[in-house]
Amino acid sequence: MIVVENIHKHFGGIRAVNGASLTIETGSITGLIGPNGAGKTTLFNVIAGALKPTSGRVLLDGEDVTGLSPHELFSQGLLRTFQIAHEFSTLTVRENLMMVPPRQSGESLIQAWTKPVVVRREEEAIREKANDVIEFLEISHVADELAGNLSGGQKKLLELGRTMMVDAKIVFLDEVGAGVNRTLLATIGDAILRLNKERGYTFCMIEHDMEFISRLCDPVICMAEGSVLAQGTAEEIKNNEEVIEAYLGTGLKNKPAKEVNA
User: Fold this and answer.
1) Alpha-carbon distance 7 to 74, whole Å?
2) Where are the transmembrane segments (predicted)?
3) C-beta atoms surrounding 77 within 10 Å
4) How far apart are CA 88 and CA 146, in angstroms?
């Protein structure tokens, strides 16, 4: 689905992404790991259109989408979430979800005046979809709560729900587990797995929690110094000597396996 070919992104003399190439297969949940400064988020931003690459290209379903803006990629089914959730804090959870679908008739004052029935029917359909998302994510108890009052984990669930309000082909998740307690993290993981298996979503996620990555992701790609260092199953990555040195730390090489995998 996504093919990244020799992407470079330089900021002056800093090579944040340095010749990264990878493939994200349709129907997969791909994990992207690496130490801080490895270029993971910069690569995400290039793929999602927030940054233009210095060189290289990105293909979506065989089409060159390099340098397209986020809203253009959004219309093609490529969505991303952020490490810090971007909710509309003064709107309810349900209203946040209903804001997502683009080109709603009610956004036009003229349409609202001249075609109120069309606007009302469209809004009812969007509300019904939002209710389906709320039920799927099991967040009915906060459906009418202001989004600004949610916990960090609930905001991450809301961000995931917003991707369900459009026909997403692939969703990029940036540290969905950051700042989330273990109970809610398990709930988020369950939702991602269900979306993948039941609704055919393709995911790529940046994450530091190896237990979470191991549960969800295959393959796992490790980046270091702006390039792809290794790719394989979670178990293969955890036992890869180069990854241990670059990401997990050289001190872990001589620790018992039980302690390393804890």
Assistant:
1) 21
2) none
3) 16
4) 9
24-47 b/e with 16+ CB inside 10 Å = b? beeebbbbbbbeeebbbbbbbbbb
pLDDT in tens, 209-260: 889 999 999 999 999 999 999 999 999 998 999 888 876 565 444 444 444 4
Amino acid of residue 50: A
Give all strands (DSSP E) within 178-246, no chain letters: 202-206, 220-224, 227-232
CA distance readout (Å), 202 to 37, 171, 194, 198: 25, 6, 11, 11
pLDDT tens per residue, range 90-116: 999 999 999 887 766 666 667 666 777
* pTM reported for the whole predicted model: 0.84
Task: Decide the pairing of beta strands 202-206 and 170-174.
Answer: parallel
CB 221 within 8 A of CB 31: yes
CA–CA gap between residue 84 and residue 176 (Å, rounded):
9
Tokens of 17: 């992404």
* Structure letter (DSSP) for residue 233: -
pLDDT at 112: 65
Task: Name the residue with higher pLDDT: 259 or 121.
Answer: 121
Ordered by start, the domain boundaries in the chain are 2-87+166-248, 90-149
Strand (E) or helix (H) holding 133: helix 116-137
- Structure confidence by residue, pLDDT tens digits, 147-170: 999 998 899 999 999 999 987 889
Q: Which two tokens stand for residue 193?
A: 């797995």
Mean per-residue pLDDT over the chain, rounded: 88
List CB contacts of 97: < 8 A, sequence separation 6 or more: 129, 130, 133, 134, 158, 161, 162, 165
The residues near 86 (Cβ < 8 Å, ≥ 6 apart) are: 159
